[in-house]
Amino acid sequence: MEGDKRNLADLLKDGGVSDIPDFIGTLPMAELNDKSQPDDGSKGIPSFWLNVLKGSDMTQDMIQDHDEPILKHLTDITTSIEVDPHGFTIYFHFSPNEFFSNTVLKKQYFLEIKPDAEDPFGFDGPSVVRAVGDTIQWNDGKNITKKVVKKKLKKGANAGKFITKTVKADSFFNFFDTIVPPTEDHKNEDDEEDVRFASDSHELMRADFEIGQVLRDNIIPRAVLFYTGEADLGDDMFDLGEVRR
After folding, report:
1. Which residues contact 98 (CB under 8 A, 6 or more apart)?
2. What confidence score (pLDDT) does residue 84 get?
3. Environment class of 18 (CB within 10 Å of its CB; exposed 0-12, middle 13-18, buried 19+)
4. Can you tell me whether residue 169 is helix, strand or coil?
5. How far apart are the C-alpha atoms of 27 and 222, rounded to whole Å?
6. Exposed/middle/buried for 39, CB within 10 Å: 0-12, 13-18, 19+?
7. β-bridge partners, 119
């Protein structure tokens, strides 16, 4: 595989894009990432987008072992820009699989591009106001974003007994969670817990938006270099000052 990656990158560097179909067989260029084709090795490059995501320092840290069988069905990642309301969307296209029924999962980022009426001089550029992900239609027993844990009760009449509870599990697919900062109606500056919740929500929003922006600006347009491992160190980073969270 490493030799194949090297040769594919060389073709692109040399401008031989038209020669790529010869490199991977008789596959037409239009089918390289054809979202209608299963990623089972019969069409395109097997696990292409899984390896692209693993080639970025930012997204590889999101991928757990149990994510990989699902991400092998990822056939394309695309993006679009919206102007009303302002923002952008990342689309993840999947071939039919045993894990969920969605063929496309999207994450939408909504931006505020106008100054705050109460503080117009404090405006320093667009800011992300919310991030909305699709609900994943998991098949029975396939939801890897949840896990069941046992906990032993230490106090009360049931001390010593075990209970089971469902908790959140680490997964790449938590990326599709919707993140909305707390509204003014739900914030109390005198309540320490509310202040901490608001701070955590904005920090989560900031980190999530950073991932979306890296996908849009770096990973998607330069996917082949992330696949081959030739993306320069730091290529999936950018000036965070460009957009205020």
Report:
1. 139, 142
2. 82
3. exposed
4. coil
5. 21
6. buried
7. 116
The Cβ of residue 128 has, within 10 Å, a number of other Cβ atoms equal to: 23
**Nearest 5°: CA angle at 94, between 73 and 21?**
70
Are 197 and 92 in contact, with CB atoms under 8 Å apart? Answer: no
Indicate the pairing of strand 86-94 with strand 104-112. antiparallel
For 79, list phi and psi in degrees, rounded to 5.
-145, 155
Domains within the chain, CATH numbers bracketed: 33-139+172-242 (3.30.1120.90)
48, 87, 155, 203, 218 from 213: Cα distances, Å: 21, 11, 47, 15, 8
pLDDT at residue 240, rounded to an integer: 40
Distance of alpha carbon 129 from its chain centroid, rounded?
Answer: 18
Cβ neighbours of residue 79 closer than 8 Å, sequence gap 6 or more: 88, 89, 90, 91, 215, 216, 220
Give 15's contacts (C-beta < 8 A, 6+ positions apart): none
Name the percent of the chain lying above pLDDT 70: 65
- 32 pLDDT more than 50: no
